[in-house]
Amino acid sequence: MNVTETAQFHAMAMAIDGRIKPLDDQGVMASAWQAVLEDVPFREARYILKALYAQPQMLVLQPGHAAKVWEELKAEREQTVRSLLSLDSYLRAMEGQELEEILGRKRAQREKLLASLPPHARAEYESQPRAVTAYRSRVAEYGRKVAGGAVQPWDEDPEMDPRFARVREALEDPGFGALGK
Question: Could you tell me the superkingdom of the organism this chain comes from (predicted)?
Answer without folding.
Answer: Bacteria
